[in-house]
Each structure stands twice: as structure tokens, then as C-alpha cells.
Amino acid sequence: MLAIFDVEGVLFDAEYLPLLAEKVNKEKEIWNITKKGISGKIDWEYGLRSRIELLRGLSYDTCQEVANSLPIMDGAKLVCKTLKNAGWKLMAVTGGFTIMTNRLKQELNLDYVFSNELIFTNGLLDEVKINVDSNKAKCAKIKVDEWRQQKKDVVIVVDGANDLTLFDLCGFGIAFCAQDSVKCMADAYLEEKDLTQIINLINSHYSLDLAVEKA
Asked: Rounded to an integer, what distance in angstroms lies between the CA atom of residue 35 and that of residue 142?
């Protein structure tokens, strides 16, 4: 079995670039572009590059400090522990960046993370290397095939319109505190910010008896 998670808004209870924008008083501009990208109203790659352009010149130390401050979603550690102990593989796919996902991979014991990379020149934010574009399924499929996971045994947990292609890979799609367009495409959805609640949905769908691990 394999669980694939989005990161910002799912494994992290925050969006990285809007928080970074507070350092240069550009929260409104960044949030406007972020919301349009998440909802699919603008080209996702264009939106990402536009946001990075607004933040160019920020120091690496500031970018790392904000990344380290991102709060992990309630229940994320317990869910990942529960699924790992049950023999599942765990993957995250994000339009976010390695500067934030390296910590997440370690703390949640994820098997693999696909993410983009911020490029710094002389210690200052310069540009972005895009490894994950709007078609997140393209990246995820690499590991799904490598691990020989059958579609019926793949669970997806996401929140944004830019995650919808991932549903093509799964047997069970969960919308987590998501937009209406995502809930319409999902097999189930949750409105409460508590990731442990996905265990009940997984148990029901697969007729399993997983018990959430204790902290």
C-alpha cells in the first residue's frame, strides 16, 4: 500500500511563500498569486516563477528560518507512524521546495519526496528550479511504477486544484480541508484539520482495522 500526500495545507499547516513574503511586506501580492495558482485560475508554473521574482534577494538564512518555522499538520506524525508500522510506503509531492521538505521527510519518515528547489546566488534567493510542475502525477508515477504499486492500493490526500492529476493514480482519493473542485473529484473528504481522521476513511474503504499510533 502507498499513501501520497500534498505538503502545504496537508502535511504542513501553512503555505511557505506567503510567510516568506511577510519578510518583505509583499503578503498581498504573493497570496493573490498563490490562491489563483491553487484554484487553477492561472498557469501554475507562471505563478510560481512570478512569486519567486517578487521575493528575489531574500537571504538564504531568512528562507531557511521560515522553512524551519512551518508547523506540521495536527495528526501528521501519528498518521505517518501508523501507516509505516502497517507496512505502507509514504510519498509527498509538492510544488514547494527542498528547503522545507528535507525536514519533513526526516520527521515523518517519508520514503520519497518530490519537490522544487530554490536557487541562491551569493547567499541570496535568485530563481527556482522546477522539478514538479502542475502535473504532479508525472513525478509520482515514477515511484509508483518503481515500487510496483497497483492503482487500487494507492491513497491520495490533497487539497488544491493543482493536485487533481494525482487522483488518476489512486484507488482512493481524499480531499483534506480542500477546495470544492477537489472535493467533487475525491472519493471522500475531511473538513477538520486533523490528519488522523484519514485512518477511519482508509479502514472503511479497504476493510482494514488500523489503529492510530499513540504519540
From this structure: 28
Which strand ranges, in their side-by-side order, compose the sheet holding 112-121?
Answer: 124-129, 112-121, 89-97, 2-5, 154-158, 172-176, 188-190
* C-alpha span between 23 and 19 (Å, rounded): 8
Q: Identify the band that residue 96 occupies on the pLDDT scale cut at 50, 70 and 90.
A: very high
Residue with cell 498569486: 33
List, for residues 14-70, the tens digit of each pLDDT value.
999 989 999 889 888 888 887 776 666 777 788 889 999 999 999 999 999 999 999
Angle (CA) 55 61 62, round 5°: 45
Per the CB < 8 A criterion, the answer to whether 24 and 125 are in contact is no
Greatest C-alpha distance within the chain: 54
